[in-house]
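Hey Z.,

So I finally got round to the pyridoxal-5'-phosphate thing we talked about over coffee. Here's the setup:
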Amino acid sequence: MTAEEARSAFPVLERYAYLNAGAVGPISHATHGALIDAEREELEHGRASWPYLIGMIEARSHLRDAVAAEVGVDADRMSLTTSTSEGCRIVLAGLELGPEDEVVTTDGEHFGLLGPVHASGARVRVAEVLGRPAGEALDAILAEIGPQTKLVAVSHVLWVNGHVLPVHDLKDAIAVPLLVDGAQSVGAIPVEASAIDFYTVSGQKWLCGPAPTGGLYVKDPERLRVVMPSYFSQERHEPDGSFEPRGGAARFDPGWIPVPYLAALLAALGGAPEWRFERSREVAEHCRDRLVGAGYDVVTEAGHSNLVSWRWEGDTMAAARVLGEQGVLIRDLPGTGLLRASCGYWTSDEDIDRLLESMAGVS
Ligand SMILES: Cc1ncc(COP(=O)(O)O)c(C=O)c1O
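And the result:
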């Protein structure tokens, strides 16, 4: 697949410099087509036939395989969720923590992770990583771990500045389970999650799937309680509701995912070119260099992920809105004074030119 073919898969790129896949990725013709075909099938043949049911079960199985392959893990340890936030809720609730327990996290996390961490009832220790060089993040996290720590919960890629946390070194250095929020990593950088205890996937961001879709890798499904059971969780159950969980991580499947969404995410996963990570890295570095060259205070260090953030004097939300009106879609990061550009394999150097030109007009 050439760069031109990759770009032409996404019609939205004809109109916009689409620099916001860290929020939601662009939708391709193929992904949209798969969704529409499945919707039409439901319209014309209904949602209650035996073949429909079999098709749904097969679609779930194919999608589980594909999501697992995306992060290099066995499919039987992958649960199909609707988001990273849901994956975090499943883990934090299943660990059944109490006020004597501690969870260690960082000051660079999204509420999708932080909310469930707080709601678990455990004490939360927050390692300060945002104000330091990325190379000091590991030590800052390790310094917060103590005898009461029951879980370390961090992002692989920090949504605030795009820095990659060394999650494998972290895993090697700790004796407690590690939950990794993969919202900004899966589809953006190469991920090998098999050694991590829990790893979440968001389908709607860098994987360019429909919202809401996602996954949760659980290394050892037997060791996490199913506290939010769905019909998919059980092999069989008793009149009092006690149940034998399904084998593997499918027991954590939170419920029905519309068949058109299953088909669309599967199509999206099949559409990315092999060179996606190299190109997105290259264009992210180019974006960073251009911003630094133009005098912006870029907080993202070189050589990290697909996200580039810089300080903005004044109202970031207003700036993002004005840029959006000019066809440049970026993210303002509330409460930080930062703007953020997401660079995917589909991003062209001209998109970065448009970003710089539009900002020059705003400042
Ligand atoms: C690091 C991080 N975690 C979690 C989320 C929430 O993801 P989801 O909508 O899949 O729950 C986001 C969304 O921006 C994010 O950036």
